[in-house]
Amino acid sequence: MTIVRKAVDVNLGALAEALEKKICAACDYLDTAECHPEKCMVAFARKVLAFVLPKGVLDLPGAAQLIPAQDLKVYVPEDVAAALAETLRQCRECRDNHSPDCVIALTRACLENALTGHRIDYPGSVFLYLARLREQDPRLAELVARELRGGSGPEAGR
Amino acid sequence: MGEGYFKQRNGLYVLDVMGACGLMTGEQFRGLAAAAAELGVPAVKLTTRQTVVLLVPEDKAAALKAAVESLGLRVAPYHNVVRPVMACPGNKDLCPRALGDALGLGQALQERYTGQEVPKDFKISVAGCPRGCTEPYCADFGVVAVGGEAYDVALGGFGGSSRPRHGQLIARRVPRDAVFAILDHVLERYRALAQPREKLGRAVERLGLEAFMPPAHLLRPAEEPDPVLLELKAFLGGRE
Does residue B148 contact residue B224 with C-beta atoms inside 8 Å? Predict the structure, then answer.
């Protein structure tokens, strides 16, 4: 039987929590006049997750074009790695049917943009993604792999 | 134009019956079953193109055809024509994965084009999402819903061959009306340029894709964005 993926099949709450507690909470601009959610890739990802949660959908065709392009903050790989790992934890390994419009992929794209300024083409598989990430950024790949090995959720390693 | 009516090795004939892209009502199925029982049909088979073939003795074929037509169904056209359209059950009521109305578009395409004569059999497939259960890249003309009322279009694919070929994407995110206009253009070019009995994909290989490309105004992306995307934009514009 075909398993139809819906938002209830994945833990988007854990993803939102990882963004909030691992990245936003560590952000120097939090609760200051310099916090501009409309320009922030992490705030964008959090809002998209908040948008889809009550709707029960995973795909948002065209949403990738709305990712803010003017986020010039410097992100710390250690903070972002935990959230990036959480996107992989929630990934359903869609392989050829991977959709770049999936909110998990959108969140991952935001984090990739935040750290490296560009997206990594997701191959639909966590293992293959880590291999690809290792080719581009061995240190980040190691941080993400460590999070995946040791972490059980957004609270792990705190 | 030929009809789907062929003699089999055992002397029986098959009648190829098409519904609305594979969709039939319970009444039509019951009617087919009753006709099959009455006319000595020993077997019924579902086909890859979402039609139904019924085995029938030659002397009962005319009566079976009349029964089929009385149910609002028809015998599928055959030979070098636009064949029955394949469409997945993608729309707002059925497949949860669907990004647009594939079934309704497929039925409209079938209504308008099936049976039109072309140099070689011409197959159309419509899918409601990029997963492509109806294999749109293996069709002469493949359509994929991509959200809202927009569709991608691929050209020149086919599977039934020792040298199958994948279709090439020629239009992205075009509106529903443009799908018909693009198909009109492609069929006109195909009839004008292809050799007799040459598949569209082979003609594309021989002449280049450019010879079949629709004019730029038919390839303009849909102007109306997906309503969910509009809602997301409004949501993003609000306070966190």
Answer: yes
Pair B165, B203: CB distance under 8 Å:
no
In whole angstroms, give the CA distance from residue A18 to residue A104.
13
Contact list in A for residue B96 (CB cut-off 8 A) is 4, 6
The verdict on a CB contact (< 8 Å) between A47 and B236 is yes
Asked if residue B54 lies in contact with residue B17, where contact means CB atoms within 8 angstroms, the answer is yes
8 A C-beta contact, residue B47 and residue B34? no
> Among the listed ranges A10-19, B31-40, B156-165, which one has the minimum average pLDDT value?
A10-19
Of B226, B236, B240, the CB nearest to A61: B226
Q: Which of A59, A65, A67, A71 to mutate to test the interface with B (most CBs of B within 10 A)?
A: A59
Residues in chain A: 158
pLDDT digits (tens, 9 = 90+) for B32-65: 999 999 999 999 999 999 999 999 999 999 999 9
Q: Kindly identify which residue of chain B lies nearest to residue A63, measuring between CA atoms.
A: B229
Site of tokens 């999936």:
A102
Burial class (CB in 10 A: 0-12, 13-18, 19+), A81: buried
The closest alpha carbon to A82, from A59, A107, A53, A49, belongs to: A107
Residues in chain B: 240
Q: Which residues of B touch A (CB under 8 A)?
A: 96-97, 99, 130-131, 146-148, 225-226, 228-229, 231-233, 235-236, 240
Task: Inspect the interface and report whether the beta carbons of A63 and B232 lie closer than 8 Å.
Answer: yes
- What single-letter amino acid sits at B172? R
* Global confidence as pTM: 0.78
| Chain B residue at shortest CA distance from A102 | B97
Model confidence at B79: pLDDT above 90? yes
Q: Report the phi/psi class of residue B110: left, alpha or beta, with left for phi > 0 and alpha for psi in -120 to 50.
A: alpha
For residue range A98-107, list pLDDT tens digits in order.
Answer: 777 889 999 9
SS (H, E, C) B121-162: CECEEEECCCCCCCCHHHCCEEEEEEECCEEEEEECCECCCC
Beta carbons of A63 and B231 less than 8 angstroms apart:
no
Q: How far is A87 from chain B (nearest CA, A)?
A: 21
